[in-house]
Design brief:
The chain is α/β, with parallel strands linked by helices. α2 (43-55) runs antiparallel to α11. It has a single domain, classed as P-loop containing nucleotide triphosphate hydrolases (Rossmann fold, 3-Layer(aba) Sandwich). It has a four-stranded parallel beta sheet. It is built from 14 helices and four strands. The longest helix has 14 residues, at 261-274. The protein binds adenosine-3'-5'-diphosphate. The site of adenosine-3'-5'-diphosphate has 21 residues, from α2, α5 and α12.
Length: 289
């Protein structure tokens, strides 16, 4: 059976939310749009923006994962083959969420890729709240345990290192014609400008009414009010978060409330060791920031 076939290491290591088999067997189309991010960099926000664009502002969906699936995330109630069949049956343009590195992304030279990056200090804190705001049932399903202290969490986050891996792998491709790299901080400052950049990149147009709906439905206030549509990961069947979790604060620089200056320096030092100066400049992470 195809499920048993070994998968090349290129597609990553199996984990609760990462099935290399799905990546290896996915059939990309040039019309596909893949959202790729390090966790907590605005993935769900971009899922919503893109779904809003392609649907002209639909607010009738139940879960964002029904309309913008998480490509590599195993389903609870479907086999891998069924999941792929579902992907094959989707109309164009298909939009998927991933947390893949460049190397793990299927069709990385063909599909259209929208990448969102965010300050690693804010991503780190956002992920801490992500875990703390989960229900017990949600944590059990995701295979995570609540850390006893922030320090314990911080050590694990640094050891896991997905922010650094993700950004390093994508940086050499920032100017590829099929890649659009957006920063969470710019999106926060000017959502309309972000929308225009995406529309330009996709060659897509909206009527004035659709534009108004896209902007309204992509606002933090609308997403917070409709948080239940964004918190049911894949088909896992339960709302994984306590009320008020996940679509949480959406702020810039909130890390200062929890992170010590020493921890902050450890993040910056690792970024400075792993990323090119131009990348650090682009992300605002040069020494002293
Ligand atoms: P905070 O935890 O800092 O509030 P991801 O989807 O990659 O997991 O990222 C989640 C982060 O994006 C959370 O950050 C969440 O609040 C924020 N977010 C979600 N929707 C947003 C929106 N419309 N505007 C701004 N931030 C948003």
């Amino acid at each position: 059976m195809a499920e048993d076939l070994a998968v090349d290491v290129r597609w990553g290591t199996p984990a609760r939310t990462h099935d290399p088999w799905l990546l290896a067997n996915f059939r990309p189309r040039s019309t596909d749009i893949l959202i790729t991010t390090a966790p907590k960099a605005g993935t769900t926000w971009m899922q919503q923006i893109l779904y809003q664009i392609i649907s002209g502002g639909d607010d009738g969906f139940e879960s964002i994962f029904d309309v913008v699936p998480w490509l590599e995330c195993p389903r609870k109630n479907k086999s891998r083959e069924e999941t792929l069949q579902e992907y094959d049956a989707m109309g164009d343009p298909r939009v998927f969420k991933t947390h893949c590195t460049y190397e793990q992304t299927p069709g990385n030279d063909r599909v259209r890729i929208i990448l969102t990056s965010r300050d690693p200090r804010d991503c780190c804190i956002s992920f801490y709240h992500h875990i703390m705001d989960m229900t017990e049932e949600g944590r059990a399903m995701a295979g995570v345990t609540a850390p006893a202290t922030f320090d314990e969490y911080f050590t694990k986050w640094m050891a896991f290192g997905s922010w650094f891996r993700n950004v390093r792998s994508w940086w050499p491709h920032r100017d590829d014609p099929n890649v659009l790299w957006l920063r969470y901080e710019d999106m926060k400052e000017d959502l309309e400008m972000t929308l225009d950049r995406i529309l330009d990149f996709l060659g897509h147009e909206l009527t004035p009414t659709q534009r108004e709906r896209v902007l309204e439905h992509s606002s933090f206030a609308w997403m917070k009010k409709n948080a239940g549509r964004f918190t049911r990961i894949c088909d896992w069947g339960v709302n994984l978060f306590k009320p008020g979790g996940f679509i949480r604060k959406g702020q810039i620089g909130g890390y200062r409330a929890l992170m010590s200056p020493e921890q902050e320096q450890r993040i910056l030092a690792r970024a400075q060791a792993m990323l090119e100066p131009a990348c650090l400049d682009f992300l605002g992470l040069r020494r002293g920031n």
